[in-house]
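Exam revision sheet. Question 4 asks you to relate a sequence to its structure. Input first:
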Amino acid sequence: MKRDSRRRFLAAAGSLAAASALPLRVSAQMTRMPLNNMPQVIARVVGASKVNQGRVKISLPPLVENGHLVPLSVNVDSPMTPADYVKAIHVFTDKNPLPEVISFYLGPGAGRASFSTRVRLADSENVIAIAQMSDGSFWSQNVFVVVTTAACLEEL
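Answer key, C-alpha cells:
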C-alpha cells in the first residue's frame, strides 16, 4: 500500500511541476518575440543620415504563397572601386517579430554589390533594403510583398 501511495504522490507532483512550467514556456516565447520596432532599428544603422531612394534594387515576387522560404535578391548600383563602393547592405521588414532580416558587409574587393538568399516573412509586408556607401551616404528601396500563408508567428 505504501508503494502505491508513493507512486501516486510522485505522479501528482510531476504533473503539477509540468503544468506550472507551461506558462513559463509561453512567457519565454513572448519575450523572444518583441513587437517590431523597425524605425528604431533603422535609426541605429543610419543614425541621423538621410536615406535616399534609388541605387538599390530588390527582387522579390509580388505575391508569395508561403512566407517560410521567400526568394530575395538585392543589387546595388556601384562601381565597387576603392574610391566608391558599398560598405553594407541591410534588409528590414515591418511585420517580422525582429525587423532586421539580414546584413551583408562588403568592400571594394567584392567586385559587385549583390546577393541572393531566402527569407521568412511574417505576413504581407514591406521589405526595405538599405545600402551604406563608402562616402557615408545611404540608399534604399522599399517593396511590398503579399504573403498568403504567414511565417514567423507560429509557436516554436
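Marking note for examiners. The first helix runs from residue 2 to 32.
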